[in-house]
Amino acid sequence: MESSRDSVASNTAQTPLSYDQAGVVYDLIDPLKVAAQRAAAATAGHLRTHGYTEVTASRGESAYVVDVGPFYLASIVECLGSKALVADEMARLTGRSAYEGIAQDTIAMAINDLITVGATPLVVQAYWAAGGSDWFGDSARAQALVAGWKKACDTCGVAWGGGETPALAGIVEPGRIDLAASCTGLIQPKERLSVGDRLAPGDAIVLLDSSGIHANGLSLARKLVERLPEGWLTEVAPGVCYGEALLAPTVLYSPVTEALWRAGIVPHYCANITGHGWRKLLRHPTACTYRVHTVPDVPPVLRFIQQHCGLDDREAYSTLNMGAGFALFVAAADAQRTVEVARASGVGARIAGTVEAGPKQLLIEPLGLRFGDDDLQLR
Amino acid sequence: MESSRDSVASNTAQTPLSYDQAGVVYDLIDPLKVAAQRAAAATAGHLRTHGYTEVTASRGESAYVVDVGPFYLASIVECLGSKALVADEMARLTGRSAYEGIAQDTIAMAINDLITVGATPLVVQAYWAAGGSDWFGDSARAQALVAGWKKACDTCGVAWGGGETPALAGIVEPGRIDLAASCTGLIQPKERLSVGDRLAPGDAIVLLDSSGIHANGLSLARKLVERLPEGWLTEVAPGVCYGEALLAPTVLYSPVTEALWRAGIVPHYCANITGHGWRKLLRHPTACTYRVHTVPDVPPVLRFIQQHCGLDDREAYSTLNMGAGFALFVAAADAQRTVEVARASGVGARIAGTVEAGPKQLLIEPLGLRFGDDDLQLR
């Protein structure tokens, strides 16, 4: 009988595991976010006193952009989230530190958002807040964090400016670390600015491959482990266990966007596919229909999570990246070359669909899925 | 007998409370810092591939500076530290939220460092990492944080670009919040760059008043409360209790540095007096003697901490700001006008001393104190 083949899957299929169960309650955070967004927007006028102006269209986008005259300035701060907890569990089980990859994840959170507006990332600052001075006393782990941070900066061609390494006993849990990165970049020449005014029907959607879960959906992934008979060590693919697979570092996409610029391709819009999964394809504020005809292969760890959490395709694609980490919306004539440039930069890519005139919706045709405007409210 | 006059003071005088006892062990953090600084310095070359260059003298200064052609770009990320724990304790005792002031403290940590290099702060990003979604459910507290953040941005004339509000259960302690700010600014015109090459014997030292402990020394201050018979509610001045006094928000100094620029005064060097107290006056790398002839009044809460922790003047001035939150090193001819400009901006100030040729040392003459080069190793 099929149900006996995989008792975990059949078990969880009866009691699906949702994001709310994983402990993140957006209803509690959202009123604060709205108040903060309003207050933040009201400060834009200060820039004029210094002779600069806000690019108002960047409010609500992934990075904030200021017109400083000869070029635009973009800045951001981003948190890793809870992926470090997986690294801690795996270190406990295997004795190996995964903090080199965790460093890359943290930088990717900032860099991959910053580049959506067309910026070249220039400077990264490290924010490493530990639960106590003793976190830094594990020198193998600390050195892995440093080495990974440096390597990710090298990959992205950014300068590591400095940062903070506070010991925050009483605020950060003992033995844990809160990791974040801030990033500043320039949009030069100004034609590289990408805040969506160029997006138009007829554009192609190019999806760049993810390496796995990246750093979004980890609360759900950590919750799932309680249901797995072998926990973190459960196999998700031959020779690869769940914990290891989750720890695949997030792809850094700035080498692709920089290579595109050198190749003369300016994306009309970009979306970093993080929280809210493929609903991020609906990020652009105007009404267009996004028709996807080709989906990437789903990384084994994401297929595993979908199956064992009992998520249908709609839930899976609206929560996880399902193999697509970054979306580029480009002129149809540039689409094939965009794919080639990405691949030459070492990142898998495919033409996945088209932008059409029509109601605001995302159609993932191979899966028979439709997401409407109601499905994503970020602004 | 004098020892019976103040049993707490005499008690603590026998067992002084040091910073190490307060739980921050720099010996564990410092090897990581050195490794990180070396790795960071090795990334500077990436800027050249984009056509920019690092201002190498800014490595080791309070903010990182890049020459982007028409002007300099400065950036930073800074943590509040543990001051929010005092706000939480006082809220528990009084029912009042101090998070409006805490927001100002957090922004001050970033802004007051950024301006040391001559930058005009332009954009602040908020990093508010809570121990769970429920932190944001206390709407009075959350709204105070938003209001205070907005107000501090208004005071400094910066745009609040956005930020992150993650819920990090398992990393941040339940009910707590890890607060940080990143800030990006421009140094324009480039003559405003202040990384110390102008500092010279004959310069005057102008000290700007602090409002109290600011956000450095809080681990010690929190440790002390265990020894106070009435704890947080112990009076430190008529009608002002210890907890309230500690929560006086950090002074924002960018209105002073911006007003100085408008008045035609370019500081030769600046030092934000934070951790390591007055030893920060020794921050500049070259050998000079800093002779202080006038010290500011000590805020009651700092005098109280000194007395009740049993710190001698040497320990107190090498740990706490003791009334001076920011140091400006200016041409002697500009000194009096610097004081006037600061006061006109609402910040108390005084000419406190002079820079002289001589061995690297800080002489605080009214207190008979000398700090040598060995007393501060930041690089």
Shape of chain A: globular
CATH fold type of the largest domain in chain A: Phosphoribosyl-aminoimidazole Synthetase, Chain A, domain 2
* Multimer state: homodimer
The overall number of domains of chain A is 2
The percentage of residues in β strands of chain A lies in: 15-25%
What topology, given as strand order, has the largest sheet of chain A?
10-12-7-13-11-14-15
Name the CATH class of the largest domain in chain A: Alpha Beta
- Helix/strand-derived class of chain A? alpha+beta
- Most residues in contact: chain pair: A-B, 85 and 87 residues
H/E element order of chain A: HHHHEEEHHEHEEEHEEHHEEHHEHEEE
Low-confidence stretches of chain A: 1-13
Element layout with pairings:
Two copies of one chain form a homodimer.
Chain A: H1 2-5, H2 7-14, H3 26-41, H4 46-49, E1 53-54, E2 64-67, E3 72-79, H5 83-94, H6 99-114, E4 120-130, H7 139-156, E5 159-164, E6 177-187, E7 204-209, H8 218-225, E8 235-237, E9 240-241, H9 242-246, H10 254-262, E10 269-272, E11 289-292, H11 300-309, H12 313-317, E12 324-330, H13 335-344, E13 349-356, E14 361-364, E15 369-372
Parallel strand pairs in A: 4-5, 11-14
Antiparallel strand pairs in A: 1-2, 2-3, 3-6, 4-6, 7-12, 7-13, 8-9, 10-12, 11-13, 14-15
Helix pairs in contact in A: 6-7, 10-13
Describe this structure in words.
Two copies of one chain form a homodimer. With 379 residues, chain A is α+β, with helices and mostly antiparallel strands. Chain A folds into two domains: 192 residues, Phosphoribosyl-aminoimidazole Synthetase, Chain A, domain 2; 149 residues, PurM-like, N-terminal domain (60s Ribosomal Protein L30, Chain: A), CATH 3.30.1330.10. Chain A contains 13 helices and 15 strands. In chain A, the strands form three sheets. In chain A, strands 10-12-7-13-11-14-15 form a seven-stranded mixed beta sheet. In chain A, strands 1-2-3-6-4-5 form a six-stranded mixed beta sheet, covered by helices on one side. A two-stranded antiparallel sheet of chain A has the order 8-9. In chain A, helix 6 runs parallel beside helix 7 and helix 10 packs across helix 13. The first copy, chain A, is globular. The relative contact order of chain A is 0.15. The N terminus of chain A is likely disordered. Chains A and B meet through helix 3, helix 4, strand 3, strand 4 and helix 7 of A and helix 2, helix 3, strand 3, strand 4 and helix 6 of B.
